[in-house]
């Protein structure tokens, strides 16, 4: 193990390695640029819902359009409430981590939800 490699900012694994210009964690597959800050949510910036409301961890949101979900015959219907969201830097544009009743854990795009007041 190279002593100069920083631990993974996601899972704190010490066995990180270089792959091109990125650092990679073999345990959680997280990739980041050298010198990037830990992902504690502070560098995510402001995440807004479909109508411009600022979202925060723990908010309740409503899905504004029906979504297809692999492995689910019904998908997620418009109007479904999702409680206790967590803002993340997910895959692609997906920036909300949540658990939906009847479906399970998944990531959503903030552009398809509206904050419930």
UniProtKB/TrEMBL annotation:
Residues 4-33 form the Protein YjdM N-terminal domain. Residues 47-115 form the Protein YjdM C-terminal domain. InterPro entries: YjdM, YjdM_C, YjdM_N. It comes from the Bacteria. Belongs to the YjdM family. This is Zinc ribbon domain-containing protein YjdM. The lineage of its organism: Bacteria, Bacillati, Actinomycetota, Actinomycetes, Mycobacteriales.
């Amino acid at each position: 193990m190279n002593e100069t490699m920083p631990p993974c900012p996601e899972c704190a694994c010490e066995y990180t390695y270089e792959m091109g210009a990125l650092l990679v964690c073999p345990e959680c597959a997280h990739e980041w640029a050298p010198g990037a800050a830990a992902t504690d949510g502070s560098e995510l910036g402001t995440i807004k819902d479909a109508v411009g409301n600022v979202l925060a961890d723990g908010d309740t949101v409503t899905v504004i359009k029906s979504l297809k979900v692999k492995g689910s015959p019904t998908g997620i219907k418009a109007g479904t409430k999702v409680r206790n969201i967590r803002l993340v830097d997910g895959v692609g544009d997906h920036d909300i981590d949540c658990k939906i009743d009847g479906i399970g854990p998944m990531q959503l795009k903030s552009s398809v939800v509206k904050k419930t007041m």
